[in-house]
Amino acid sequence: MDTSPMWYSCNCGGLLQLVQDFRALDVELLKRQFHERRAERHTLMASGVWRYKELIAPDLPTPYIVSRNEGNTGLYQSERVRSFTGVRQLWLKAQSENPSGSFKDNGMTAAVSHGRSLGYRKFACTSTGNTSSSLAIYAATAGLTSVVLVPDRDVALNKVLQTLAYGAQVRTFTGTYDDGIRWLDKYAEAEGLYVCNSVNPYRIEGQKSIVFELAQDLNWTLPDWIVLPGGALSNASALGKGLHDLYTLGFIDKLPRVAVIQAEGASPFHQMIASGGDALTPEVKPSTVASALNIGNPPSWRKARDVLHLTNGVTAAVSDNEIMEAKLLIDRSGIGAEPASAAAVAGLRKLVNEGAIHSEETAACIVTGHLLKDSDALRTYLDLPESIQHVRLQS
Ligand SMILES: Cc1ncc(COP(=O)(O)O)c(C=O)c1O
Ligand SMILES: N[C@@H](CCOP(=O)(O)O)C(=O)O
Q: Isoglutamyl lysine isopeptide (Lys-Gln) (interchain with Q-Cter in protein Pup) cross-link position in this chain (predicted)?
């Protein structure tokens, strides 16, 4: 067992990125194996992450893997949501169906498993609530300790309760996700904590599986666009790295374009791209109804910028009203989403209206978090108690 400390950043000022050697892989054989593993039930290899182990963590010994059969999420089509966005065909990939209710589980299973293989027992993150509940579920599954830092305001209470319920030690602080990242950068090593935020390159490797599964769902032909919400920009980074793997290995013969959608009140990445700049100016006071996107200094911005270059991608920013309008529609379609996820649908609609995406094109939006994650957001449009009819039951 290797007990050396874990490194997250590189001397160049950016984050570490893993480079895998895929030269010995046989793509046709892997396609068959991915297909067979998916059909298995109750085995590690049926997981929507570990099914792709050869592309994610080829050298990680399986006894260290902590898995909850993550991935294997639904891919849906809703005529209502499609016509709202204006594209010809739309898929919604519901990462909200993961064990802890968000896309974080795809990366967390990989990060916790890697930390465990290094001999760590204490795992940490700072979070607006989804990363923390994901870490807590994996730590609980393996009997490990999780320590999470959560801002003392503007987070969804359900997520904090979920984190506590899985047994995490929750520490709250005055500040934002960005302050929490700075604290971990400074003190995690001294406290013997293995950091599970997306600064951790193994998180990114695990999250690549979202696009692997999407591609497999669609028989290795992806739509013209993949649209996703952007906060810390881990998902955009992982998506791009996964696309790069699929394309260079020959699983897909065309790269889709990527659209990253931020909330207007927390949109430093969009602002940098829109102004043609190449240096991110952090948003000091990020603020949006989509609390999961309340991030002013996204650690993965360089990786996400490279993904836009690779895929000829674009960005957009949407208002809180646009986010809630899209959320209502996704909820009414029966799929459901927390506000951050709805930003992708709102952004797709905006990009079609602006002509950046053509109405004849096809798209997939990543539904990143479950409807039940944020009941405060639900209250804002459900008009309680008027929308619930009180009836007298006859005996
Ligand atoms: C539900 C949800 N959607 C979107 C995001 C944004 O993803 P990323 O931080 O990877 O950009 C987050 C958190 O970061 C989230 O929790
Ligand atoms: N919305 C996220 C914030 C980003 O976290 P990270 O896992 O990318 O570091 C959360 O749920 O905390």
A: 186
